[in-house]
Amino acid sequence: MSRRLLRLEMPVFPDRRMFRLHDATVDPDGPGSPVPPDGALISVTREQMWVASLQEIVSVQLLLEEWDSAPPPFGERWEDEAKAVLYLRGAVSIDMGSAGKAVDHLKLAGGVGDYVVRVF
Are 37 and 16 in contact (CB under 8 A)? Predict the structure, then answer.
């Protein structure tokens, strides 16, 4: 049975209809950054992800969860869904561009390694 190790729920203000989730040690504007998603929900490189949103001035609700294994099936169906694998060194940051960081360095219970990220 899967156990939830971490849950964070908060508003995020997308900058130009996007926000980024990335390894806390990575410069999100540095070399190797993903290109902004164009017509897709996400754009990914090994250590970071752009997430597209239909909102720009209005906040979106971010729910970030860490599980010790695959979580149980989620009951709702969403119009758009994407999945990727990110390599994280034990902490994650969420960057809102010109609005600043929503989360600077959230420590993950799973430590260093690959994390499956699902976006709905």
Answer: no
Whole-model pTM over 0.70 = yes
Instruction: Judge contact between 87 and 46, C-beta under 8 A.
Output: yes
Contact present, 68 and 3 (Cβ < 8 Å)? yes
Please report, as a single letter, which amino acid is at residue 89: R
Q: Output the CA torsion sign for 78, 60, 5, 102.
A: positive
Any bridge partners for residue 62, and if so which? Answer: 10
User: Is pLDDT above 80 for 62?
Assistant: yes
3-58 pLDDT, tens digit each = 999 999 999 999 889 999 999 999 988 888 999 898 899 999 999 999 998 887 78
Indicate if the alpha-carbon torsion angle 41, 22, 16, 33 is positive or negative: negative
